[in-house]
Amino acid sequence: MQILVPENVKKVIYTLEKSGYEAYVVGGSVRDSLLGLTPTDFDICTSALPENIMGLFEKTVPTGIKHGTVTVISGGIPIEVTTFRTDGAYNDFRHPQKVKFVNDLKGDLSRRDFTVNALCYNDSIGIIDCFNGIYDINHKMLRTVGNADMRFKEDALRILRLFRFASTLDFTIEKDTYKAAINNAHLLKNVSCERIREELIKLSCGINPAAVLPLLNTDCIPGFKSNSDVTKIPSLPKKNNLKFFAFLHLCTDNISDAISFLKCSNAFKDYSLRNKNALELPCKTKPDIKRLLRLLETDIFDILCYKSAICEKNTEEAIAATKEIIKCEEPYKISQLAITGDDLKDIGYSGKEVGEKLELLLENVIINPDLNSKDKLLYISSN
Fold it and tell me: Quick one: pLDDT at residue 97?
């Protein structure tokens, strides 16, 4: 079976082979190609040592040279090229103490996490499958390469990756692999919160985010809990922020604490807390929707979709009304008022009275848009 490899990647493989080295695309790009998916990036493994790689290409970056990885810029695109290696002992449940460069492809593949990620390919040889990864792909099965308990004790992040792939690929987990993952779930305390966050984002945007529920039942991630409503997340629009917010809102006791624990960006924190507050507000009438618009702006469509998909509320009328308000430019924020703070100062308001009065005027206009003229608002303000 032939894998479609981009020309810039083929060029790197050809250059390495021409110089007498083995070189293959490896891992996710092969797996995704076999699944009929479009790979997002292509990693290369090779028998060439890092210094050999850097000597063969004009533009390289020693991104992970200690572990054998050199980034080659080919056709303007960065491609990670890594020397065949075996890993030494792991002392922190995350990283090997040292790595050994080898000239053995199978030895390199044997250190990888799951059989479906231990496949490699080039055009001259085709697919190399040392651990029955194709069988597992055909059976939609996730299985570790070698002993599952040992794989997870080496690197606890593999536990989260397992459930992330179960979600994104909609694969089942082989029984011994599943058992070892659950038994070693406590080791996730050794994984950085940033890495946990990235895995949870990908997982929540997958086909089957409910795959992670058995893991959450182990209390391995502080503040997270199992919630069957995550089965509804895939019906949300394909927006990472919305799906991750939904996951956190459903599966944490306190979304603010979870966001802090995971070290999410300030932008995502603001987005999530506004959404959380909006969920507690009504959206039945036009004034309701204008108040939501003021809080959320165009993100209002995210929360209306959430109410529809997760809360199973009919929001069709609310969505139509929102679009009408935006199209007709009906005012819902102070900057849209036909009067300004300076106008209020001219008729005697001062200090915090100005802001308070603008809020009251906006509420009047939200209820009755026809009041939004300078004369009318000045009249109301003077009486």
Answer: 66
Q: Are 366 and 332 in contact (CB under 8 A)?
A: yes
**Averaged pLDDT in 10-residue chunks for the chain of 383 residues:** 88 97 96 93 96 96 91 95 83 68 92 96 95 98 96 95 98 98 96 97 98 96 95 96 98 96 97 96 95 95 97 95 95 96 93 95 95 94 86
CA-CA-CA-CA torsion for 335, 336, 338, 340, nearest 10 degrees? Answer: -10
Q: Is the backbone of residue 3 left (phi > 0), alpha (psi -120 to 50) or beta?
A: beta
292, containing H or E segment: helix 286-296
CATH class of 1-139: alpha beta
| β-pair type (77-83, 85-87) | unpaired
Are domains 1-139 and 144-265 of this chain identical in fold?
no
State residue 119 phi and psi, 5-degree precision.
Answer: -105, 145
Structural class in CATH, domain 144-265: mainly alpha
Closest residue by Cα to residue 147 from 179, 116, 186: 179
pLDDT of residue 324: 96
Give pLDDT, residue 40: 85
- pLDDT, residue 87, reads 74
Residue 95 pLDDT: 63
For the sheet containing 126-129, what is the strand order? 60-64, 69-74, 77-83, 43-46, 23-26, 119-122, 126-129
pTM for the structure as a whole: 0.91
Domain spans of the chain, in order of start: 1-139, 144-265, 331-383
Contact (Cβ atoms closer than 8 angstroms) between residue 256 and residue 273: yes
- In angstroms, the Cα distances linking 191 to 171, 182, 219, 225, 308 are 24, 15, 15, 18, 35
Strand duo 43-46 + 77-83: pairing? parallel
What's phi and psi for 44, nearest 5 deg?
-120, 135
Do the beta carbons of residue 57 and residue 47 sit within 8 Å? no
Burial of 295 (0-12, 13-18, 19+ CB in 10 A): middle
- CB atoms under 10 Å from CB of 311, counted, come to 11
